[in-house]
Amino acid sequence: MRADRLLSLLMILQIHGRMTARELAQRLEVSERTVYRDIEALSSSGIPVYAERGPGGGCILPEGYRINLTGLTEDELRTLFITPLADLGMEKARDAALLKLLAALPTTQRQSVEYTRQRMYFDPVGWFYSTEASPFMPLLREAVWGNRRVILRYRKRNTDLVDRLVEPLGLVCKAGIWYLVALSNGNNRVYRISRVRNVALTDEHFQRPHDFDLEHYWKAWCVEFQARLHPYEVCLRIAPQFVPILPYVMGESIYQVLEEAEPPDCEGWLTIKLRFESLEVACGFVLGFVYNANAGTTVPPDFETVVEVLEPQELREAIIQIADRLYTFYRKRE
């Protein structure tokens, strides 16, 4: 809609002050001629925006001019009021800003906001997981905002405590868990904030890399991390009676695996591939898999083997060894 485009044009100029018609056309996905027509329309309506042609020219909105926020759409308002900032220690600032925004809104839009708040709630924490609020979030936020070095005391996965002098580049919240992206010894690193045991904010400032993009880095790091975390691929053959129960045992992510699987064999068994952190983790999963499938059954012949390891061979042998040891151990005690 043209009204939305005019508002977007004004908001862009309010942020940048001056931009060329070509830059605005690219941002708004319209032609330069359309940009000039929009500038003329805004100027005719009393808004002090104008265009200067020639070298050094552009579309200009005088410094100090502010747009009335009542131009926000209802969808835009709703997103503002359901964005969580409490973990960053910014809930008071957020509440104050939202109160000012509400006061500037027409009655109908204030009612729409309250309507949304009573019908939508954002809970980022997964089931059976507690929140990971950290008392150091405000300090880390200050360091990120001010490009200041900090000394982190960090607990590694092996429980060792280490001190690191880092240059904080950004904070990321993924599925309710906060991470710090920072430079350490010239390399980008990711730190889980729940493992931070202390933060010392220094007076040293650093130059943020001009080519660093937080979103781009995080997405690339996630792909690399997942591949590194689960390098052990296993090929399993699943009995037909257990396939419908898989989502209850493995979660919603198994649906994609099932969709990518080949059609069932002549006996109805389905072959799937899964990735695990190690041989030991895969072995524990398969044994638990068999137990879950037979929960509530009695001894053989009711016991069913609903999963067969096809590959790798070392996993098949590990399952056999564990089964033999368990059988021998309990037989001796009868």
TrEMBL record:
Residues 2-60 form the HTH deoR-type domain. InterPro entries: CBASS_pafABC_assoc_protein, DeoR_HTH, HTH_11, PafC-like, WH-like_DNA-bd_sf, WH_DNA-bd_sf, WYL_dom. It comes from the Bacteria. The lineage of its organism: Bacteria, Bacillati, Chloroflexota, Ktedonobacteria, Ktedonobacterales. Keywords: DNA-binding, Transcription, Transcription regulation. It comes from Thermosporothrix hazakensis. This is Putative DNA-binding transcriptional regulator YafY. The keyword Cell cycle does not apply. Pfam families: HTH_11, WYL. GO terms for molecular function: DNA binding; DNA-binding transcription factor activity.
